[in-house]
Amino acid sequence: MAYAGLFVVGTLIVLTLGGGITIWFLRHQLTTAVEDELTDLTRIYRAHGLNGVVAAVETGMRSRGEVSYFVGEPGREPLAGTVTPKAIEPGWFDFIRVGDDDDEALLAKSLRLQDDVWLVVAIDPEPLDDVEELMLSGIGWTIAIALPLALICGSMMTLMVLRRIDAITETTIRIRDGGLKSRVPTKGNDDEFDRLALNINAMLDSIQDLTRNIQQVSTGIAHDLRTPLSRLRNTLDVMGANNGNKAATEKMINGAIGELEVVLETFDALLRIGQIDAGTRRSNFRDVELSALVDDLVETYEPVASADNKTLTADLATDVHVHGDRPLIVQMLANIIENAIEHTPSGTTIGVVLSKHDGAIRVTIGDDGPGIPEAERDRVFERFYRLDESRQSNGSGLGFSIVAAIAKLHDADISLGDNAPGLRVEIAFVVK
Amino acid sequence: MRVLLIEDDGETADFISRGLRERGDVVDCAATGRDGLFLASDGHYDVLIVDRLLPGMDGLNVVKLLREADVATPVLFLSALSGLDDRICGLEAGGDDYLVKPFAMSELVARLAALVRRGPLVETNARLAVADLVLDRLSRRVHRDGQAVDLQPREFRLLEYLMLHAGEAVTRTMLLEHVWEYHFEPKTSVVETHMSRLRSKVDKPFDRALIETIRGVGYVIGEPS
């Protein structure tokens, strides 16, 4: 509303200012014309006397149409000239012609030539009046049309803006009250409000993802800790009621320590993921010779695989380097290799391939085991996610989360694919 | 041996000092970094066990100040912080080993023994021998009873580490850290598998086994002296 008022006041100021300047300019032109004539005629008077002036005026020599003259005594017939004034005042004055009323006064300047004889040069100030009229009517129209129009448009715009801001406010209130699913409505016309709404919605999406992740992690922690902790509790109960059989007690203590190891391992993994996610380890990045690192891992795990009746093969490109954190890369690849060894049936062949093509460095670990259904592949990276059949197996369910966190720290893309048959894990490092 | 334990948590301090005293060690305890620094500056301890997070003065600073004062007593850091950075910080401050809480008493004992017995002389020995087993660190050859034993590089390093600590218990974690430089807990039996391969070459063809498994602790080569 205030903006509509401001708009109208602004228009008026512009009109008045513009009109005023025009009037001042026109008036200056008219007075200059009068002054010039008066000067010229004075010069003629000095040279040729009164008769010269009369002659000059009478012959129309000086007549240009827009300027009128009067030479003579006030109240008498003019000696020369086209107009007769009712009265003459010295200097600038309003020239009212005999028989006219005040309304049509001319702009005039007088000069006394001799005794009671005056020379008057006058000009019609009509252009001035026209502009004045135009300006006044402009102001009038502005007030009559622009003001209501501005007010209506302004109110409508204000209403529109307010409605959209209200929609955002309402959404934020709903979210504050616990409805993180709410989204700001969009119109799809890509205006400023739509862009704001889209950004707010994108922000809400990532907040929702984060909270979902936290919920998932909390549930995961609760599940992963509850099982060993309740087993531990049961063990302690039984030990409390035990009749003192030393061998049984020792067995139970070992069991209890085992359960606690699981709890501690889970915490350790969570802390490590947190540390990796924080990204502070980037400062430790060095040149890492990936070829030697992978070769070393294969050498370490080949006997482990073969003890489990599996085969670990390697096809490694030489002299491949990446910029990264050596211990973390070792842990990442070891986790994937161990996962392949642990979750495949005996007789499986696991292949580790390191390749470098057009600057793209890839480590691929594939097996010909049962693989992972396509729908579940992405979920493997979620914290505490376990494939149903591996629920029973040990480990914290955080292995792949650590792998994903380490890959992310290195700006490496990790993907799970079909090895036809089996699972293929591929890590692609970006070479800068 | 004489041990100074600088640890602010009473229960942990009790657990450690009781365990060490049972073995016949002499243990002094300090609950703050300042007290610990005062006691340790004498330099009459065989080994220091320093908690990383201490009230008043941080464990790292205690060790830094000791090293600046030319106290060379070996230091084992204890910490609830398991990050790699924390470990590196500890070693850079002048610590000799780093053990993450919680730990088994056997792990602590094995590491302390390794720290105290580790003299510069042993490290530079080019020829290691236990009974009739000889390992040449320069030519990287191993002989037992006069016969050459052909080892893979990893098996060689494993045996080398065991022989450097002959007569001392070596834990699985110590082997992972020093032979593999792995600072995470593998899910598969990496150490056991390689150890069994090593044994099949070093012990199996001979009458007497030199590498022994100590249940709940780790491995040892040679007679504990």
- CATH superfamily membership of the largest domain in chain B, which one? Response regulator
The biggest beta sheet of chain A, please? 5 strands, antiparallel
Rg of chain B, rounded, reads 19 Å
Q: Note poorly predicted spans of chain A.
A: 388-394
Query: Cα-atom Rg of chain A, whole angstroms?
Result: 50 Å
Strand residue content of chain A: 15-25%
Low-confidence region ranges of chain B: none
Q: Major sheet of chain B, described briefly?
A: 5 strands, parallel
DSSP helical segment count of chain A: 8
Number of helices of chain B: 9
Helix and strand succession of chain B? EHEHEHEHEHHEEEEHEHHEE
Tertiary shape of chain A: rod-shaped
Written account of the structure:
The complex is a heterodimer of chains A (about 425) and B (about 220). Chain A has about 425 residues and is α+β, with helices and mostly antiparallel strands. Chain A folds into three domains: about 1-130, Beta-Lactamase, CATH 3.30.450; about 190-280, Helix Hairpins (Orthogonal Bundle), CATH 1.10.287.130; about 280-430, Heat Shock Protein 90, CATH 3.30.565. Chain A has eight helices and twelve strands. Chain A has a five-stranded antiparallel beta sheet, with helices on one face. In chain A, helix 3 (about 190-240) runs antiparallel to helix 4 (about 245-280), helix 4 (about 245-280) runs parallel beside helix 8 and helix 5 runs parallel beside helix 6. Chain A starts with a helix and ends with a strand. With about 220 residues, chain B is α/β, with parallel strands linked by helices. The model of chain B has no long low-confidence stretch (mean pLDDT about 90). The interface between A and B is medium-sized, with 30 and 23 residues.
Briefly say what this structure is.
By secondary structure, chain A is of the alpha+beta class.
List the helices and strands and how they pair.
The complex is a heterodimer of chains A (432) and B (225).
Chain A: H1 2-58, E1 67-72, E2 80-81, E3 91-95, E4 106-114, E5 117-123, H2 126-176, H3 192-240, H4 246-278, E6 286-289, H5 290-307, E7 311-316, E8 321-324, H6 326-342, E9 349-357, E10 360-367, H7 374-377, H8 399-409, E11 413-418, E12 423-429
Parallel strand pairs in A: 7-9
Antiparallel strand pairs in A: 1-2, 1-5, 3-4, 4-5, 6-8, 9-10, 10-12, 11-12
Chain B: E1 2-6, H1 10-22, E2 26-30, H2 33-40, E3 47-51, H3 59-68, E4 75-79, H4 84-92, E5 97-100, H5 105-117, H6 120-124, E6 127-130, E7 133-136, E8 141-144, E9 147-149, H7 153-164, E10 170-171, H8 172-180, H9 190-202, E11 211-214, E12 218-221
Parallel strand pairs in B: 1-2, 1-3, 3-4, 4-5
Antiparallel strand pairs in B: 6-7, 7-8, 8-9, 10-12, 11-12
Helix pairs in contact in B: 2-3, 7-8, 7-9
